[in-house]
Specification:
This protein is an alpha/beta fold. The protein has one domain: TIM Barrel. 39% of the residues lie in helices and 12% in strands.
């Protein structure tokens, strides 16, 4: 085994898109029953399977039952319009069906629409999407404070012991969620998803503020995609924020990418070459994700 193989031991990917997500015609990636055994052989500990469209709780038990692997597979729900929107009822259903993680709206978020994020690309999958009324969910009142529904989501996640990801809401909304969760003693189970993504673009000082409040800041492999940050720049951000609150993940769903395990290995190798020690790689890829998910 090489150094980079060793880095995969015990890692958890808290942001991995399921293969069967967009449509039957768009299944161009390696399905879970093929790549998860490979990830098991690499030493991966667990993965959260996510879909922008539907809760993954109804398929994850069958993937787990039919895939020989020690990798823990957790389901999740994104609070988009197709799943029922940001409702405590949806959070409760996720928990009752065995889910471990809830994401705030992605393509249904106002911030995503304004920044032409994933909502802008949906039309490449569904031609009729242009006629769908997007709810443009937004969670701040006219004074910049978190609205009651936001508090209800946090309280529901806490009561059901679920992890809450910020999805594609603005970083200002994320800070409001984190501050409210801190008051409930639950900010350690919140994570700002892909903080470097163009629709989030969270300033480093705001990332540090979130970390100081107890939340985690996620950085996905595509932050290092060609034309974006180089590894040393991203590692410098990590250090400015504080490595104890950084979570590395794949945000995997592109058909041209290696499978999630291989992609994670590549990403961790790039972070190591950017200046993280082996122990620091383990911190952001194994220890911190386990803390975020409420695991020992």
């Amino acid at each position: 085994m090489t150094l980079y193989d060793d880095m995969m031991e015990g890692v958890i990917d808290v942001h991995c898109h399921i293969d069967f997500e967009f449509s039957a015609k768009e299944r161009k990636r390696e399905p879970e029953f093929l790549w998860i055994p490979k990830a098991d052989a690499m030493g991966m500990r667990g993965v959260v399977l996510k879909s922008h469209w539907w809760p993954t709780a109804n398929v994850v038990p069958y993937i787990a039952a039919t895939t020989p692997s020690k990798v823990e597979i957790w389901s999740s729900v994104v609070l988009n319009a197709t799943a029922g929107g940001p409702s405590p009822c949806i959070v409760e259903a996720c928990a009752e069906l065995g889910g471990k993680m809830v994401f705030l709206p992605t393509w249904s978020a106002r911030n995503d629409v304004q920044h032409k994020g994933f909502s802008h690309r949906i039309q490449t999958y569904y031609k009729s999407h242009a006629t769908l009324e997007n709810p443009n969910y937004y969670f701040l009142d006219d004074k910049g404070k978190l609205i009651p529904r936001g508090h209800e989501i946090i309280e529901a996640c806490k009561s059901h012991d679920l992890t809450l990801g910020m999805g594609h809401v603005s970083w200002q909304e994320s800070l409001a969620f984190i501050a409210a969760a801190r008051d409930l003693g639950y900010s350690h189970r919140l994570v700002i998803n892909h903080a470097q993504a163009h629709m989030i673009n969270m300033p480093v000082d705001a990332q540090k503020q979130a970390a100081d409040l107890g939340a985690f800041v996620e950085s996905c492999w595509n932050a290092l995609a060609p034309g974006r940050l180089d590894p040393a720049q991203l590692v410098a951000q990590f250090r400015a924020v504080g490595l104890h609150q950084i979570v590395a993940s794949t945000d995997y769903f592109r058909p041209y990418s290696p499978n999630p395990g291989e992609l994670f290995r590549m990403y961790l190798g790039m972070l190591h070459e950017g200046g993280l020690s082996k122990g620091e790689v383990n911190q952001v890829a194994a220890i911190n994700p386990a803390r975020l998910m409420g695991l020992a």
